[in-house]
Amino acid sequence: MKNIDEERACQCALNRIFGFEPKIGLALLEAFGGAAAVFKTPPKEISAFLGSLSRAKYASLITMSSYESAAIELERLASSGDAFICHGEPGYPKALIECDDPPLGLYYKGSRPPEEVFDTRPQVAVIGTRNLSYYGLDWCRNIIEAFAKARVKPLIVSGLAIGVDVAAHKAALEFGLPTAGVMATGIDDIYPRRNAVVGESMATTPGCALVTDFPPGTDAIGINFLRRNRVIAGMCEATILVESRIRGGGMMTARLAYSYDRDVYALPGRIDDPLSQGCNLLIRENIAEPIGSLPDLVEKLGLGKTSISLKADYKAEVEARYSDIDESSRRDLLKVAMTVKAKRGIGIDEMCSLFGWPFSKVSRLVTTLECDGFISVDLLQHCSPRTAKV
Fold this sequence. Notes:
By secondary structure, this protein is an alpha/beta fold. It contains 19 helices and 14 strands. The chain has three domains: 79 residues; 196 residues, Rossmann fold (3-Layer(aba) Sandwich); 76 residues, Arc Repressor Mutant, subunit A (Orthogonal Bundle). It is elongated, with a radius of gyration of 24 Å. The model has no long low-confidence stretch (mean pLDDT 94).
């Protein structure tokens, strides 16, 4: 074990031991003057400090063996280009330090040093349900595009999960914003595997990163996601809940952010839509502020001004844009635009059946509306309205 920093290895070992109770580990660091000092303290003295039987069990884990395992782990991290950031070091998210239960360290994967990712810009969490609707996807992209066009560019933080999380990461990459994924597994594994391409892109894109407080080799189990949510909520100055049912990981993260005295925002939705009920509940409880204006949201987050805003009247703007073409074509374009607005995610084939028009006609109209910024079309030819404008 050559060139291993003893203090770092000791703190890495303590992070492994006190991962689910970081307050105890931090108390030991403060009481004994550092991680290495903790390992040099007799077990009886550690037990006496810990006090209760439930805490005293940890004294038997603070051994030379756990130190050596951590030192080997740090060597492997270094050989793979990854790192372990100790609590309080440059690159450890400053907002996370303010919490009363931050991890003793974070495992880090990125193409640039962690201080260039976490010490240079505000961090905003964009989170929500795994069962993302087209409404949620549309507004997730609108929100992140507004951030990308703001004077101050934030780091978009999420959990790399299916749904809102990966949509937020993808939108950030698309619009040129840095993004960080907080994982519920070890830094050596990306879960779920279907998001591996996005995760690997984040790990290799300057300004982006993957982080976790779980040691390499940790599998994705339920309780780990709860611990992961604590890190997301703690490291961000603000949290945005895009869509959520009454119960879910996004709701927990938003409530944790509120408990950390962070700003919380939620996208309001229909009162009869289960995917908006969580957001609407947090708004009613005054835990979250509703998102109504993208420029207002950007300014409230301290990001300055943005060049993106909501279309004041979607129908009127479509009509105005095509005022100089023949009435029949204008009427067809408006029909497609308003159908897409009413039925987010509708497919081109479905519109062909709905209108009784040939595919070539619908495809041409969709392409025109997409090029003019009124709708967006995904790879499966599902259409969604663009309700924000530059």
